[in-house]
Specification:
Blueprint (H helix, E strand, L loop, with lengths): L3 E4 L4 H14 L4 E5 L7 H5 L3 E3 L5 H10 L4 E4 L5 H6 L1 H22 L2 E3 L2 E2 L10 E3 L10 H20 L3 E2 L1 E3 L1 E3 L12 H11 L3 E3 L7 E5 H13 L11 E2 L3 E3 L1 H9 L7 E3 L3 H9 L3 E2 L2 H7 L7 H16 L2
Helix pairs in contact: 1-8, 3-5, 5-6, 7-9, 7-12
The structure holds (3R)-3-hydroxy-L-norvaline.
(3R)-3-hydroxy-L-norvaline binds next to strand 10.
């Protein structure tokens, strides 16, 4: 039986990943790690054990791992791309100094570690169409630099000390549960709220700017299925490209209009978000993930849009 610690359990991915892991491994076997001031609430707080885990303080990680006999750590502690550009030192402290602390505890205690990378780990020089698994990574954001370093540091701990480190390069992730905070791809979440509320959406990303995107249920399954994969099948360990769909704001608006014919969108391009978005792939090649551990997405744009609108209407009582 697995004993799992989710670090950053109150974030966009962490909050839903914790609940998915509890459903899979049992509520008492999945510990929700959090930092003071970001306490879990509701079902996340009531359905299983909690622990204060501040990645910048290795002692808190070691104590939680020892107390709960953790064998697998999902590390979701990070600042997202836009907010990281305004707080680069904090982004590094949480993303990399924090990762070092986690990997040291994992080495001492024999834990496996999942730390997501991102399409943000690529840059302008990376081939944008069918971005290969192994290619040039020269990101120009501190978020991207921290994600490339995440991949390389995780690989180093794997090859040097045998720590079982694994990760995927997530696309922009879309969910109706926990809103994202400070990301370049947040527009693809915010637009659905505008559609359900009958508001005109003001899009910060230029028409024609395609990015890889993924619905949260697929993202959660990718993380869990990679961590459960037979290690003897893996040629790569860190930074698997995983893709599901690729769209620009126009494609997304047209899909929403199939359900909300009166939906309106205007553009007010955010220069920082647009510059970051243009440095990221249009669509990744995820054949390595499909061949090495059987990755297969289940949500495309039409299916995700129908589900997002239905679930948001229920949540917003629209
Ligand atoms: C962001 N949603 O926009 C995050 C994610 C690939 C995008 O990293 O920063």
């Amino acid at each position: 039986m697995k004993n799992v610690l989710v670090v950053g359990s109150t974030g966009q991915i962490g909050s839903e990943l914790t609940m998915a892991l509890r459903a899979r491994y049992g509520n008492t076997n999945v510990v929700a790690g959090y930092i003071p001031g970001c306490e879990p609430k509701g079902e996340l707080a009531e359905s299983g054990p909690l622990a204060i885990v501040d990645v910048t303080d290795g002692k808190t990680i070691a104590e939680a791992v020892a107390q709960h006999r953790i064998d697998t750590i999902y590390n979701l502690a990070a600042l997202l791309s836009v907010v990281a550009e305004s707080k680069p030192r904090l982004a590094w402290r949480v993303g990399i100094d924090g990762l070092w602390n986690i990997l040291e505890v994992a080495h001492d205690r024999g834990c496996a570690v999942f730390t997501p990378s991102s399409i943000g780990s690529f840059g302008l020089e990376t081939p944008h169409d069918h971005t290969p698994q192994d290619t040039i990574q020269r990101p120009r954001t501190i978020y991207g630099v921290s994600k490339v370093t995440t991949e390389l540091l995780s690989e180093w701990f794997h090859h040097k000390y045998g720590v079982d480190t694994r990760s995927v390069r997530f696309p922009g992730i879309i969910s109706y549960v926990t809103p994202p905070g400070g990301g370049t791809t947040d527009y693809a979440v915010d637009i659905y709220y505008s559609a359900v509320r009958g508001e005109t959406f003001v899009c910060p990303i230029k028409a024609g700017t395609r990015m890889d995107m993924m619905y949260m249920p697929d993202a959660l399954r990718a993380a869990i299925e990679l961590m459960e994969a037979d290690p003897s099948r893996l040629t790569h360990h860190n930074g698997f490209n995983v893709a599901a769909m690729s769209f620009d704001p126009e494609m997304l608006r047209e899909e929403i209009r199939k359900h909300v014919p009166t939906f309106k969108m205007v553009y007010d391009v955010d220069p920082l978000k647009q510059a970051i978005a243009e440095s990221w792939p249009d669509v990744m090649d995820d054949s390595c993930a499909r061949n090495e551990w059987g990755w297969q997405h289940e949500y495309d744009l039409p299916r995700m849009t129908a589900d997002m609108l239905e679930k948001l209407r229920a949540r917003l009582d629209a």
